[in-house]
Amino acid sequence: MKTIGAMALAAAGLITVTGSFGMPMGSSLDSTPVAQQAQDWEWQGSVARGDAIEIKGINGGIKASGTSGSQVSVTALKKGRHDDPSEVTIEVVEHSGGVTICAVYPDVKGKKNECAPGDQGHLSSRDNDVSVQFTVQVPAGVKLVASTVNGDIEAGGLQAAARATTVNGDVKLSTSGEARATTVNGSIQASMGSADWNGTLSFNTVNGNITVSLPEGVSTDVSAATVNGSMNTDFPLTIKGQFSTKSMHGTIGSGGRDLALETVNGSIHLKNGS
């Protein structure tokens, strides 16, 4: 794997990168910074087809796009108004399933933050205003796994499975593979080209709409629910059991796989993406 920039590879396969940052452009009369400090970071490397590039942030959004190239490219822009961006490191972990890249903030109350794939590791921040905006270029066949807490996730032109998770932000996904998305305070827009997924394909939010475009000819069992919103579908839907304007269980085509959509304050729309 090749990297760009000044990076040190630790014995455990962990790359921690820090760089130079710009000085504040000015300050107010009470010495409070009024312009952000900024710091850039860049990485490029190979991820095998079928493996994943995973991005983990806390404060800041993630933007991804497909590329015709063979390598994954990731850039990060760190900005802080009161806190120093150099205190937030970007760490890269290689593992059997691909590569995980994390924004690692200073430890909180002695609990060590650690970058690790999937549900492993620990990432948190407290009273730190540094934001990290990730931009990712993803080759065909490489999966995208993107998660943050405060920020939007937007990915388009992908050619493999994509999964996005945020808390305070919208999610927009477009891929020729399968898509999965979760947020709390935000809407979900997902367009997918795959009609053959395993397990339950789920889209969940609390405060926001859900719009999912499926390929023509899809067959799936649908479970959808909202509290304060409406539901509609472009596909003929065979209803199972009692029909309600707030929840529905039905089948598109011959069924055979599961699709779950749930929101509280928002509407649900299943679109024919053909």
Please describe what this structure looks like.
The protein is mainly beta and 274 residues long. The model is unreliable at 1-35 (pLDDT under 50). The protein starts with 7 loop residues before the first strand and ends with a strand. It folds into two domains: 1-19 and 35-47 and 57-150, no CATH class; 152-274, no CATH class. The chain has strands spanning 8-9, 14-17, 37-45, 52-56, 62-67, 72-80, 89-95, 98-104, 131-139, 143-147, 153-158, 162-165, 171-175, 179-182, 188-192, 200-204, 210-214, 220-225, 231-233, 238-239, 247-252, 258-262, 268-272.
How much of the sequence is in beta strands?
over 45%
What is the H-and-E element order? EEEEEEEEEEEEEEEEEEEEEEE
Task: Compute the CA-based radius of gyration.
Answer: 21 Å
- Specify the overall morphology: globular
Question: How many structural domains can be distinguished in the coordinates?
Answer: 2
What proportion of the residues is helical, as a percent range? under 10%
The count of β-strands is 23
Main pleated-sheet profile: 13 strands, mixed
Count of DSSP-assigned helices: 0
Q: For the terminal residues, how far apart are their CA atoms?
A: 38 Å
- Mean pLDDT level: 87
- Give the low-pLDDT segments: 1-35
* Content-based structural category: mainly beta
Strand order, sheet with most strands:
1-2-7-8-4-10-12-14-16-22-18-21-20
Q: Topology, pairings included?
A:
Layout: E1 8-9, E2 14-17, E3 37-45, E4 52-56, E5 62-67, E6 72-80, E7 89-95, E8 98-104, E9 131-139, E10 143-147, E11 153-158, E12 162-165, E13 171-175, E14 179-182, E15 188-192, E16 200-204, E17 210-214, E18 220-225, E19 231-233, E20 238-239, E21 247-252, E22 258-262, E23 268-272
Parallel strand pairs: 4-8, 4-10, 5-9, 5-11, 10-12, 11-13, 12-14, 13-15, 14-16, 15-17, 16-22, 17-23, 18-22, 19-23
Antiparallel strand pairs: 1-2, 2-7, 3-6, 6-9, 7-8, 18-21, 20-21
